[in-house]
Amino acid sequence: MKTRAAICWEEHTEWSVEEVELRDPGPGEVLVKLAYAGLCHSDEHVRLGDLSLPDEMGGVAFSPCPMVGGHEGAGVVQAVGEGVTKVAVGDHVSASFIPSCGVCPPCSSGRQNLCDRGSETMSAEPRITAADGTQVKSMAGLGTFAEHMVVDQDSLVKVGDWYPLDVVALVSCGVATGYGSAVNVADIRPGDTVVIVGVGGIGINAVQGAKAAGATQIIAVDPVEMKREFAQTVGATETAASIEEATPMVNDLSWGRGANAVILTVGDATGDLFAPAMGMVGKGGTLVLTSLSHIAQNEISLNTFDLAMSQKTLKGNVFGGGNPRNDIPALLRQYEAGQIRLDELITKRYTLDEINEGYADMHAGKNVRGVIAF
Ligand SMILES: NC(=O)c1ccc[n+]([C@@H]2O[C@H](COP(=O)([O-])OP(=O)(O)OC[C@H]3O[C@@H](n4cnc5c(N)ncnc54)[C@H](O)[C@@H]3O)[C@@H](O)[C@H]2O)c1
Ligand SMILES: [Zn+2]
Ligand SMILES: [Zn+2]
Predict the structure, then answer these.
(1) 346-358: per-residue pLDDT in tens?
(2) Who is most buried in 21, 47, 59, 146, counting CB within 10 A?
(3) What average pLDDT does the chain have?
(4) Distance between CA atoms of 199 and 309, rounded to whole angstroms?
């Protein structure tokens, strides 16, 4: 079938919205009509070349492009391929940028976010053909920046049809990842002092997670005033414009002990951020790395003596350390009960054709989260 999709043809070029050919769902695959897609920063990492490897001549040795972007999204199942049992036509679904097969060792031990099928998604056989005949990959095996997508059933989570689909789209990445950074990965306890560095679409949900986990002091750090003010409406108890400004504040608030957890959710986790972020962590505390950075970034600043002698932990995080099939519906129930705020996170809606404007607004710090409405 024909559909319209936003393609990143090459690093450092704009998203190009064009008509493409989407093949029919094959065995185990599902055709979804998208209702909303969230403008998460991760798709911009693709466009800005952070997931590409340079060659020695200054060219590109490996590129994920051309690629239809988008991994945050929600819609309605329109057709299913042979053998699909997990969803049916008419179901409302959330995309899941990590699939959950249910049977690999991580899935069967309650760590679906580490599903072994996750690595397949970036190398999956393309399902989209551009007008000039080029086969186009899709972000995380999804490609939510399109009116329709064909995806593996393992990459979808069925949700209640009474939830607004814009909220479901946010939960599919930003909310699950941010909330889980605090609740599952940082393992925050009641009374803790927690610092969230970068309160955009992901970090704002780490604030909500820290609050739900019972943290007493939640310091939201962001250079953008609007984000700091917004963070206070969902649980931040203090704010700072930079790590430098937050450091003495954390020291004071914790009576010199430092934070139990610092969660890094800036747009790009450059190596220089680690030593100052870890500097806010107290003895036995944890620095959670949720942000992505260049795929070949191998060096970070870190005081290794302090790491050892203060017995600190540096922990990675993918998808909030949880289980998409459990956590996405659970977060929606929390939303329904008023325990977390999601409608307010959507600052602005865009059409698919306005995607470049939406991302420009994200980089300019105008949006907590922008969404594409189809
Ligand atoms: N680990 C995962 O599973 C996962 C999932 C989704 C997104 N991500 C990554 O999380 C990161 C955040 O994504 P997002 O969609 O929230 O991006 P975003 O652009 O909406 O938010 C980033 C925020 O960080 C702030 N910021 C930038 N530099 C800062 C600094 N030095 N100190 C404090 N604040 C700073 C920005 O003002 C902005 O508010 C990205 O790197 C994204 O790729 C990771
Ligand atoms: Zn994302
Ligand atoms: Zn699995």
Answers:
(1) 999 999 999 999 9
(2) 146
(3) 97
(4) 30
The separation between the first and the last C-alpha atoms of the chain, rounded to the nearest angstrom, is 17
Domains of the chain by residue range: 2-173+321-373, 176-318
Do residues 208 and 232 lie in contact, with contact meaning Cβ atoms separated by under 8 Å?
no
- What are the tokens at 299? 């060096």
CATH code of the domain occupying 2-173+321-373: 3.90.180.10
User: Would you name the residues annotated as active-site residues?
Assistant: 40, 42, 45, 71, 173
Nearest residue to 245 via CA among 280, 271, 199: 280
Helix, strand and coil in the chain, % to nearest 5: 35, 25, 40
Look-up: residue for tokens 């017995």?
Answer: 311
The closest-lying atom of ligand 1 relative to the alpha carbon of residue 273 is 31
Going from the Cα of 251 to the center of ligand 2, the distance in angstroms, rounded, reads 32
Ligand 1 site-directed mutation target among 196, 222, 369, most atoms within 8 Å of CB = 222
Distance CA 243, CA 238 (A): 13
The set of protein residues with a Cβ atom below 6 angstroms from ligand 1 is 40-42, 45, 173, 177, 197-203, 221-224, 227, 242, 265-268, 290-292, 317-319, 362, 365
pLDDT tens sequence across 235-283 = 999 999 999 999 999 999 999 999 999 999 999 999 999 999 999 999 9
Q: Give the model confidence (pLDDT) of 300-336 as tens digits.
A: 999 999 999 999 999 999 999 999 999 999 999 999 9
CATH of domain 176-318: 3.40.50.720
Going from the C-alpha of 226 to that of each of 75, 171, 208, 374, the distances in angstroms are 30, 22, 17, 27
Q: pLDDT tens, 137-160?
A: 999 999 999 999 999 999 999 999
Task: Tell me the ligand closest to 320's alpha carbon.
Answer: 1
